[in-house]
Amino acid sequence: MTSGLRQRRIERNIRVHDRLASRYEKIHDEIFNPVEQARLRGALARAKDGLRTAAAVPRALDFGCGSGNLTRHLLALGFEVVASDVSTEFLRLIERRYRGEPVTTWKLDGESLAGLDDASFDLVATYSVLHHVPDYLAAVAEMARVTRPGGVLYIDHEHCPDHWRPDPGYRDFLRRARRFDWRKFLVPANYYGKLRRLLIDPHHANEGDIHVWPDDHVEWGEIGRLLEERGFETLFVEDYLAFRAGYRREVYDAWRARCADMRVTALRKRL
Predict the structure, then answer these.
(1) Who contacts 40 (Cβ-Cβ below 8 Å, separation ≥6)?
(2) What average pLDDT does the chain have?
(3) What CATH code would you report for 3-269?
(4) What confidence tier does 207 reach under pLDDT thresholds 50, 70, 90?
(5) Which of 5, 62, 88, 121 stands the most exposed, by the fewest C-beta atoms within 10 Å?
(6) Domain coordinates of the chain in residue numbers?
(7) pLDDT for position 192
(8) Comparing 6 with 149, which gets the higher pLDDT?
């Protein structure tokens, strides 16, 4: 990917998320529902338990903070948080929402963590962000750089490898679990996006997603190799079935142990 294309994709992501910031939580029911939030809180608590740093008050970087999905849980777990994003509107939302809390904001450039010191965070966490980053491996390398020895790097809510393989069971789950949602037919962007994919760019995504296609997706093996080279060891890795508010709960509960579409992992930097 050329530097010019990377920059255009970063600029588009900024425009899209500045526009969506105020209603982001309303349109992402796969994130902001009680089932997913409980899973997320538990996974972050496990990551915190894996810390081997000596900080009295651990410091966390929320990489790609959005509206504060991770930030709220990190605060509840006793972290001091630096919430970072490319979107100025998201950062303004964070500053209003967490005024008086131990939260500061940091504007990302979409490519690096320039300006943040090496080994300056006990926990670096990112959720549903890597597929928006043009060079996501470079971003992971930067997150590794700013993680302290004994600290933890936490990556969550990216498609797991099995998602890209044919799985009749997963298709059967979706057929049974999904409720018909007529509201999608009232969203003009859905029609624009479909036409653009058909006529211009088969990899166009309405919200600026990049690595979310069978031939171009987040490669967990590459992430693992990069972090191992930088002295990280795996604490846990789990594939899970994400819950959406539109799913039939009884179907989800019956299938959640039988198939998966997302992955979470936490790795600790060796002392």
Answers:
(1) 69, 70, 73, 127, 156
(2) 93
(3) 3.40.50.150
(4) confident
(5) 5
(6) 3-269
(7) 65
(8) 149
